[in-house]
Amino acid sequence: MLKIGVLASGRGTNLQAIIDACNDGRINAKVECVISDNKNAFALERAKKHGIASYYVDASDRREHERRMDEILRSHDVELVIGAGYMRILSEWFIKQWNRKIINIHPALLPSFKGLNAQKQAVDYGVKIAGCTTHFMDELPDHGPIILQAAVVVKSNDDESTLAERILKVEHQLLPRTIDLYEQKRIVIEGRKVRILPGDSWKEKYSYPDVLYSEGY
Ligand code: GAR
């Protein structure tokens, strides 16, 4: 079973989606620990409720914050780190420690709308199609090789929160599936590109929101 460590700064609905997918057998993985830079993060409560080790790690000193996170992840023998709404930029040092073993979800179709408030950026820009992306983290924010994407239609009466809510539902499918592909060893990184090796399809196995998923979903 793949051992996962999750970094989360907020309410942790993506964390919950991972836990649910582990529990109902969609993915052969287990969340071993949850780390937050925010002591009030509801993600920590979710972890506790499920008997998962949870840690608040102060981030006032970034080096110390990352050193401690690294130590915790190693102490739990974590094989894959997931950024699930972790809102800090990680240093080159931390990324190197977890090279090709650290995946993030971002609520936009990268490379559009990097950084904070991606859904608001999409609404303000007037795009007609928004979405979400899972990608390996590299030394630049929201930049590493893209694994999966899904497209979500922007409606004319959408504001930041209605669009964010619609994208979030899709994130809850995309992130567990990304972990599933990783666990099945079907993700091949070729430079900037990711190739997904053939195998099962969640589109066929499960009924999911009617959105456009990239190949490999
Ligand atoms: C999600 O929409 C996630 O994609 C986003 O934060 C939200 C966390 O929600 N992440 C980023 O913007 C990272 N740049 P959650 O705490 O309910 O999972």
Report on the structure:
The chain has 217 residues and is of the alpha/beta class. The chain folds into two domains: 1-99, 3-Layer(aba) Sandwich (Rossmann fold); 107-134 and 150-217, Formyl transferase, N-terminal domain (Rossmann fold, 3-Layer(aba) Sandwich). Helix content is 35%, strand content 24%. The protein has seven helices and ten strands. It has helices spanning 13-23, 42-49, 62-75, 92-97, 118-125, 160-183, 202-205, and strands spanning 2-7, 29-36, 53-56, 80-83, 102-106, 129-136, 146-153, 187-190, 193-196, 212-213. The strands form two sheets. The protein has an eight-stranded mixed beta sheet with strand order 3-2-1-4-5-6-7-10, with helices on both faces. The protein has a two-stranded antiparallel sheet with strand order 8-9. Strand 8 and strand 9 form a beta hairpin. Helix 1 packs parallel to helix 6 and helix 5 crosses helix 6 (160-183). The chain is globular and about 45 Å long. It starts with a strand and ends with a strand. The model has no long low-confidence stretch (mean pLDDT 97). The structure holds glycinamide ribonucleotide. Residues 8, 10-14, 84-85, 105-107, 118, 168, 171 line the site of glycinamide ribonucleotide.
